[in-house]
Design goal:
heterodimer, A: 112 residues, mainly beta, five-stranded antiparallel β-sheet, B: 117 residues, seven-stranded mixed β-sheet, globular
Amino acid sequence: DQQVKQNSPSLSVQEGRISILNCDYTNSMFDYFLWYKKYPAEGPTFLISISSIKDKNEDGRFTVFLNKSAKHLSLHIVPSQPGDSAVYFCVSPWAGNEKLTFGTGTRLTIIP
Amino acid sequence: DSGVTQTPKHLITATGQRVTLRCSPRSGDLSVYWYQQSLDQGLQFLIHYYNGEERAKGNILERFSAQQFPDLHSELNLSSLELGDSALYFCASSVGDDLPWYNSPLHFGNGTRLTVT
């Protein structure tokens, strides 16, 4: 089974600075992860993903890093913008019978 | 706009009642997933249908059931409702049958907020 944990329920970052959201996982057999972003009153939207064949995946201002030895991944947002204020979920698709396992998320607030 | 439509947006009902939540997937998507998000919780996977067939079940209560119709829309039926069933219920769709890889991530609707009083 796979568990993903986002230990920081919230994070505040100044506009223009770097936001770093962290996620730990338990099972190294399942090294594939997705990040979803969720605004209030909306469903989650897919942001970026990474698999074990890469240590890094980049899409514009968003970069995800995978540290397989530490069972840790992080999402970097540079530069942070007010529109990035949302809840971010680290998600694993390999969680036994559960198609996607969502953590409780990290609420990111960008301060203008 | 994800292209996934969920109705109704809000639903208020009493304990013991039965409700039906509806989901229309994106055009061309064959898979429909249902998730429950209770207050301050992550999203819990309930059930997955592909082209009318049930593919996987998560922690779905026996009081809950779902189906996917030939036109690919899906309904989630919740019966004998309890206060603890109050939550946001999300539907998501994807093109394929299997796990959402790079090219076919899940696309979520905006959810139905169910309040049981």
